[in-house]
Amino acid sequence: MFLTALFVLLTATLASAGFGSRRMTVGLAGLSFVFAIGVYFHHASDALPLSF
After folding, report:
1. Residue 14 exposed, middle or buried by CB count within 10 Å (0-12, 13-18, 19+)
2. 12 contacts 28 by C-beta, under 8 angstroms
3. What residues make up the domain containing 6?
4. pLDDT digit string, tens, across residues 10-51
5. What is the structure's pLDDT at 47?
6. ∠ CA(36), CA(24), CA(30), 5° rounding?
7. Is residue 49 one of the residues assigned to a domain?
8. Which residues 6+ apart lie within 8 Å of 12 measured at CB?
9. Rounded to whole angstroms, how far apart are CA atoms 33 and 6?
10. What backbone phi and psi angles, to 5 degrees, belong to 50?
11. I need a surface site. Which of 4, 19, 35, 52 has the fewest CB within 10 A?
12. Residue 46 within any structural domain of the chain
């Protein structure tokens, strides 16, 4: 679900780069970068359920 939201946000950023204003594109790019870092840390901090 998080990755789908990130994909939609990046798609909106690309559409804004093609058709929108520069200010909105920079804002969406910054927001998508912060969101991508958040998704990374969300998955990197999960404990791995390993059983040997």
Report:
1. middle
2. yes
3. 2-41
4. 999 999 999 999 999 999 999 999 999 999 999 888 888 888
5. 86
6. 25
7. no
8. 28
9. 9
10. -95, 135
11. 52
12. no
Of the candidates 27, 26, 30, 35, which has an alpha carbon nearest to the alpha carbon of residue 7?
35
Q: How many CB atoms lie within 10 A of CB 4?
A: 8
10 domain residue, yes or no:
yes
d(CA 15, CA 5): 15
3-state class of 9 per DSSP? helix
Rg over alpha carbons for the chain, rounded to the nearest Å, is 15
Per-residue pLDDT, 27: 97
Amino acid in the structure at residue 17:
A
Q: For position 14, what pLDDT does the model report? A: 97
**What's the whole-model pTM score?**
0.80
Phi first, then psi, for residue 38 (nearest 5°) are: -65, -40
Which tokens hold the place of 47? Answer: 């404990």
Two tokens at 41?
């840390």
